[in-house]
UniProtKB/TrEMBL annotation, chain A:
Cofactors required: [4Fe-4S] cluster
Family per similarity comment: Belongs to the 4Fe4S bacterial-type ferredoxin family. RnfC subfamily.
Gene source species: Buchnera aphidicola (Aphis nerii)
Molecular-function GO terms, alphabetical: 4 iron, 4 sulfur cluster binding; electron transfer activity; metal ion binding
Protein name according to UniProt: Ion-translocating oxidoreductase complex subunit C
HAMAP family xrefs: RsxC_RnfC (MF_00461)
From TrEMBL, chain B:
PANTHER family (alphabetical): ELECTRON TRANSPORT COMPLEX PROTEIN RNFD (PTHR30578), ION-TRANSLOCATING OXIDOREDUCTASE COMPLEX SUBUNIT D (PTHR30578:SF0)
Highest classification ranks of the organism: Bacteria, Pseudomonadati, Pseudomonadota, Gammaproteobacteria, Enterobacterales
Compartments (UniProt record): Cell inner membrane
Described function: Part of a membrane-bound complex that couples electron transfer with translocation of ions across the membrane.
HAMAP family: RsxD_RnfD (MF_00462)
Organism annotation: Buchnera aphidicola
Name of the protein described by the UniProt record: Ion-translocating oxidoreductase complex subunit D
């Protein structure tokens, strides 16, 4: 048997029947309206490329890109109906932009540039192609993969391909591996040619036995590739934990995995890179797994980005009444969906449907009994119970000392806790407070610097005054107010000076007379 | 959702399993000392619940949720198992008051207490009533007879004067709550110290056999808790190992060997300390190495108090001293977060 890699902490879950999850359902009909959401933060830097009532072809870019963001492409051919501001359901302060497109059901594509032999091109031109076709990391954090590749040139020695599902009931990556493995191989070779990698590791969880044997047969002749088998646990998916379990090293705080020498790509981004470079397609499709808890099954769909969820659920004849709750994300990291018109975006992984029960048992929140289950389970060696105490009592200093900002919000500690405390809620609140404190400290630093500059300026002015004073003294002039005024205000005209001198002489003469009178 | 995660108990279930695990010990104590043990435990539960309701009203907290977590019942059961059977009803009130009100709720409720509440009650009773706490039922009465019930009720509620109690027992028959003190006293005066001499008297046969069986029943309950993964194996293992190791050294190399190390393991309150009292999650450290250090410290202290001090069975004081050291251990064994280690 091969060695199985393991990491400390984590939770085992029941496996589900995976025979029916192999296949991807390709055909989902196109809706009449597509909604595309663009983040406002990225849109500050880049501009919109389209206007209202403009005809758009399929695959045409809608926005300009920037160094941090990537252009977004239209999923269908049709008219642009509306461009408006729209605030997302989670944060009301964060303003997004919503673009609605009416499709004409003709599917007119723009001309695609197909490349047969990618080795004729230089790596920088290949990265430019990847950037222009709008590819981001599809694992969850939408980091532009072109930027990752630029940073990785001449720095990286191994490429890690992440085929581990973070949540136990998502099977999107599994079905993609099962169906399109040859294309993924080509994608790996493209990345290895760009960044000159010595080794390629493919990371798979242990319960996918068929896939492992299949890949081992394909790999035997190739020296570059190697399989690593992880133990089946939640959470295995995040890049921090994969590097720790494979190599034993930790990514230092505030740095990226590239700085150690490892490049990590999710398997669906590798597939998207292959489609972009060789077929010339922009990133429009995405595989999403839908988990139906009644049948205990999950199905995978290939959907265009921008189809509203309401339409998708209506096509599958799933009731979206008040009796059902619909979540985005997996079993652990789920977010409740309030707006059904919200469309499918690039960072979405799965949809989860749950029946709403009225007769839920009331979960009583007992007080923390210091049992330490959460400490043993935490994958990054934090102390959740101490952090809970600190965040509850507004003890910000100690919370920062015990590294609250490292928490990845995987919610294991919440599931294990015997007294039903929702810990992650406290941690999120505490993180916001820490960010506020950070901003305040930065503001104080800036004001202090400004204050110091002002003091320096005043000091230099005073020095100038005294220097001038000495200079005039050297000329053995009478000490009086006129000279100080002269040194400070050089713009006074000569006539005024003469007037002032006369006045001063008069005043001094009057003073003398008064003194004489007093003495006498 | 069919999420199956190990150890997914609530607080209520954890406390309930501890009560279930202590049932065999209750039955064996009933067999050797009579029904009086059951009545004492019932009185402890009633008084502790009354005290808890009163203090929760004073603190203006939700009474229903705080009583439902069964924690006060667990402390009262453990206290009732650890005291001898000659206590009267007004001493039980004092013990319940100190264990529930002073050691638990004045520190801030469940989860905030520094010391083990059952052991605080035991220590207060031991210091204030040493005579009653160090004597036990002289005549071994038969179980399952109604006459015994009547006498035991009379003993608890209607014991009029101290003189009755003193006259009925001879000074030579008089022993401590555990037979350990008898051994210690005789070792000072160079008696012939061997177990056979001690067990020649009828009375002491019952004592030795009784404490053996009680300890074995506590061990059974402890294995049940280990099987359910409610307690961690680290504290009982490290406690028993350090205690056994030191007593083996004492047995082999000391000038006048007292008793065998196996006798130390199955006498007094070693097993109840190892599996029920020292493993209280509130007052022990959360990290794995800290648990081992805490257990070995408690084992060392029990060994010292038993062999060299005046108290016969030093479980209560050693556990309380170990609880004092826990915040210090936790402070030094802080784990770092992700990526803060120097490379």
């Amino acid at each position: 048997m091969k060695k199985k890699y393991n990491f400390s902490g984590g939770v085992k879950c029941l496996p589900i029947n995976q025979d029916t999850n192999k296949y991807i359902i390709n055909y989902v009909p196109y809706p009449t309206k597509f909604f595309i959401y663009v983040k406002y933060n990225t849109l500050k830097k880049n501009m919109l490329r389209v206007k209202i009532n403009q005809k758009v072809l399929c695959g045409e870019p809608l926005t300009f890109g920037d160094s941090s963001s990537v252009p977004i492409h239209s999923p269908t051919s049709g008219l642009i109906e509306n461009v408006e501001f729209y605030s997302k359901h989670v944060d009301l302060n964060q303003e997004n932009i919503k673009i609605t497109i009416i499709s004409d059901h003709l599917e007119q594509w723009i001309r695609l540039k197909k490349i047969n032999n990618y080795k004729l091109y230089s790596p920088k031109s290949l990265i430019k192609i990847i950037y222009q076709l709008g590819i981001v990391g599809l694992g969850g954090a939408q980091f532009s993969s072109a930027k990752k590749l630029i940073l990785s040139i001449n720095k990286v020695h191994t490429l890690i391909i992440n085929a581990v599902e973070s949540d136990p009931y998502i099977t999107a990556d599994y079905s993609l591996m099962h169906n399109y493995f040859n294309e993924i191989f080509i994608g790996c070779e493209i990345i290895s040619w760009i960044s000159k990698v010595e080794k390629i590791l493919i990371v798979i969880q242990e319960d996918k036995i068929e896939l492992i044997s299949k890949i081992q047969l394909l790999i035997e002749n190739k020296k570059l590739f190697k399989i690593c088998i992880l133990k089946k646990k939640y959470p295995g998916g995040s890049s921090k934990i994969i590097i720790k379990s494979l190599t034993g090293k930790e990514i230092p705080n505030g740095k990226h995995a590239i700085d150690i020498g490892y490049l990590i790509f999710n398997i669906s981004t590798v597939y998207a890179i292959k489609r972009a470079v060789i077929n010339g397609e922009p990133l429009i499709h995405r595989i999403i797994s839908l988990y139906d808890y009644q049948n205990n099954l999950s199905k995978n769909f290939l959907i265009r980005i921008g189809t509203p969820i309401n339409f998708f659920l209506n096509y599958l004849k799933i009731d979206n009444n008040l009796n059902y709750k619909i979540y985005l994300g997996g079993m652990f990291m789920k977010d409740l969906l309030t707006n059904l018109n919200y469309s499918i975006s690039k960072d979405m992984n799965s949809i989860l449907i749950k029946k709403y029960k009225k007769k839920n048992k009331k979960l009583i929140n007992y007080s923390c009994i210091n049992c330490g289950y959460c400490v043993q389970v935490c994958p990054i060696n934090l102390l959740p119970q101490k952090l809970y105490l600190y965040s509850k009592n507004n003890n910000h200093k100690d919370a920062k000392k015990s590294y609250i900002m490292d928490c990845i919000e995987c919610r294991i500690c919440e599931k294990v806790c015997p007294s039903n405390i929702n810990l992650v809620k406290y941690f999120k609140n505490e993180k916001k407070q820490q960010n506020k404190i950070k901003i305040e400290i930065n503001q104080k630093k800036i004001f202090f610097d400004l204050f110091q500059l002002r003091e320096k300026r005043i000091l230099s002015q005073k020095e100038n005054i005294y220097k001038n004073k000495n200079y005039f003294n050297h000329l053995s002039l009478i000490e009086s107010n006129i000279l100080e005024k002269l040194s400070t205000k050089k713009l006074i005209s000569n006539k005024e000076i003469e007037k002032n001198i006369r006045k001063e002489i008069l005043r001094s003469s009057i003073k003398r007379v008064k003194l004489k009178n007093k003495i006498l | 959702m069919n999420l199956s995660i190990y150890n997914n108990y609530t607080v209520k279930e954890i406390m309930f399993f501890v009560i279930i695990a202590s049932i065999p010990a209750i039955f064996t104590e009933c067999y050797f000392f009579g029904f009086i043990i059951l009545i004492q435990i019932l009185l402890f539960i009633i008084f502790s619940l009354i005290f808890e309701i009163i203090i929760l009203k004073i603190r203006q907290k939700n009474i229903k949720n705080n009583i439902l977590d069964n924690s006060s019942i667990v402390t009262s059961v453990l206290l009732g198992l650890s005291i001898p059977c000659t206590l009267t009803w007004w001493m039980i009130i004092i013990g319940a008051f100190f264990s529930i009100v002073v050691s638990k709720h004045l520190y801030g409720g469940l989860g905030q207490n520094i010391f083990n509440p059952a052991m605080i009650g035991y220590a207060v009773l031991l210091i204030s009533f040493p005579l009653y706490m160090s004597s036990w039922n002289k005549e071994n009465t038969n179980l399952f007879s109604l006459n015994d019930l009547k006498t035991s009720i009379n003993k608890i509620f209607f014991k009029t004067s101290k003189s009755d109690f003193l006259i009925s027992s001879d000074p030579e028959d008089f022993t401590e709550a555990t037979p350990l003190n008898d051994l210690k006293n005789k070792s000072y005066y160079n008696y012939d110290i061997s177990l056979k001499n001690l067990t020649s008297q009828n009375k002491k046969i019952t004592v030795f056999s009784a404490y053996n069986y009680i300890n074995i029943s506590f061990l059974l309950g402890g294995f049940f808790l280990l099987y359910k993964k409610i307690i961690c194996w680290r504290i009982p293992f490290s406690f028993l190992f350090s205690f056994f190791f030191l007593s083996v050294i004492n047995f082999l190399f000391s000038i006048n060997p007292i008793v065998s190390p196996f006798f130390h393991l199955f006498s007094g309150g070693t097993m109840i300390c190892a599996f029920f009292i020292a493993t209280d999650p509130v007052t022990t450290s959360y990290s794995n190495i800290g648990k081992i250090i805490f257990g070995s410290i408690v084992g060392l202290l029990v060994y010292i108090i038993r062999n060299y001090s005046d108290y016969p069975d030093g479980v209560a004081f050693s556990v309380l001293f170990g609880n004092m050291l826990v915040p210090l251990i936790d402070n030094f064994l802080k784990t770092s977060g992700y990526g803060h280690r120097d490379i």
